[in-house]
Amino acid sequence: MVLKFDEKYKETLINEWETLRKYNKGMVHLLRDLSLFAQKTFSKDVIITSIFRTEERQSQIYESALRSGSIKKVPKSAHSVWAAVDLRTQHLNDYEIKQMCNFIKRHYDKTNDYKIKMGDRKYQNSNTVIVHEIDGYGRHFHINYTGPTILINWSRETETAMRCHDYSGEVTKV
Which of 36, 50, 71, 82 has the least C-beta neighbours within 10 A? Predict the structure, then answer.
């Protein structure tokens, strides 16, 4: 499993990861499972860019979108209650992003107690993961999850991963 932290905020993210392990074990397992899936399927890392966020930081992030009129008010953040994590997408192509969203939806949507209520549904129709862009911060995965840890049948998942990998030649790079 290769789960990494954004180099710019690595020290803070490592500390937040330790706290997340105490408050939201289901999310920790989801991220470990997603990391294993991404590594087995595409030989790609999962890179965490945000775990915890204060309401003040949330306002700073959405300030530009608020000024431009693309949003009417700053959304409440699931990050402030240890229920959300953001992941980088810039090193992934559209096909890989879609497969990772499908993996999360397939294994975690039914047990998620903290459902997503906003965002771009281009890649998925999921209660747990969206891919969206915030003015000035780029496109990223936003994952909301509070729920149990899930046991995944990895032999079956590996078969799915192999089919995904074989199909990857038809993917357009982003």
Answer: 71
